[in-house]
Amino acid sequence: GELSQQVRDCGAGLLVTDEPNKAKAADVEGLLAGVRCLPMTELRQRLNGEAVEGLDQVEGSALHSIVYTSGTSGRPKGAMLTFDNHLWSAVGSALNLGLHSDDRWLACLPLFHVGGLAILLRSVIYGIPVVLHDGFDPVAVNRSIDEDGVTIVSVVSNMLLRMLEARGNRPYPASLRCVLVGGGPVPQPLLEECAGRGVPVAQTYGLTEAASQVATLAPEDALRRLGSAGRPLPSTELRIEDDDGGALPAGQAGEIVVRGPTVTPGYFNLPNETQRTLRNGWLHTGDIGYLDSDGYLYVLDRREDLIVSGGENVYPAEVEAVLESHPAVQEAGVIGFPDERWGQRVAATVVPWDGTGASEQELLAFCRSRLA
Question: What is the pTM of this model?
């Protein structure tokens, strides 16, 4: 599975797990030599409340984490992120959104996403509490905003839609000062509903290779700059390039490229991929967009062929490979269709082998058992 591939790729020797994921971690331990599974309960027992001596000094350029991401190839790549990458991301976000003494950030995004990880790291860097949920439940998130003093929450569009549906007509408390929305553009009807209900939406554009946020649109600009992802964070530069690497003027669409201290030094053990992505000092995102005359970014397309459904990247090649591993399937093609709730939904066409057949439900069950 994906977990085994990533543990093997980065050469990890220890897999720390909570109780719900203990069986999955044990499977990886059984598959890979030299990997040890350690439940968090056992880790706590070993520490037993003892103080852990920290390092006197850590170089900012030292590797902090490897976060797996992928493009249209469907093969996960380990984006290396340094201590400085995460620090500058946190500083840029604070300068952009502000930092209040009573801030509490609600984390309901997956922690294996850079967006979820960034919340935890900002909590440590800022010295503010984080309200950590096991997963996304719109009722639980709404309750937490009401009862736990949450001031900032990070979601994707369909999560925000479900929060509003679950909330009904009840207004959000004034203490909620920012709903940070990533994972693709926010649909205009949803923005208008949020504006009408006083929900402070801040649209954002980011990617794993830039340690989360690249640009963010302030809530007061949500309707004035419809479709925009905002301006780049302090310390982050972005420009639009043509196919030859030349900078394009305002209003002209091209590839979004990023430069600054949040940008990854490269992909783990993938020098060719690193060289293709980091060129002339710029991170080439593979995303298409343009800047307006005031420097606001508009993202037109995610990566070519990549499907973004509910903020999750769905890799057509990966789904096609699973379908084609079914004994009844000769060929498969996967594309995304626009969907109001999820942004995009995944559709597949298959060519069966002569003399064989498989029902739609059988193929769906087959995919569910093999895809995350």
Answer: 0.81
Q: Residues 262, 210: contact at Cβ < 8 Å? A: yes
Looking at the domain 59-303, which fold is it? Rossmann fold (3.40.50)
The DSSP output letter for 264 is -
3-class SS of residue 138? helix
Ordered by start, the domain boundaries in the chain are: 1-54, 59-303, 315-368
73 — pLDDT class (breaks 50, 70, 90): low
Pairwise CA distance, residues 195 & 105, whole Å: 21
| CATH, domain range 315-368 | 3.30.300.30
pLDDT of 302: 60
CB 104 within 8 A of CB 129: yes
Rounded Cα distance, 359 and 343, in Å: 27
Cα–Cα dist 171/142, whole Å: 10
According to the model, what pLDDT value does residue 72 have?
45
Confidence at residue 316, expressed as pLDDT on a 0 to 100 scale: 75
pLDDT of residue 355: 77
Residue 87 has pLDDT above 90, yes or no: yes
* DSSP letter (8 states) at residue 247: B
What 3-state DSSP class applies to 284?
Answer: strand
- For helices 157-167 and 138-147, the axis angle rounded to 10 degrees is 70
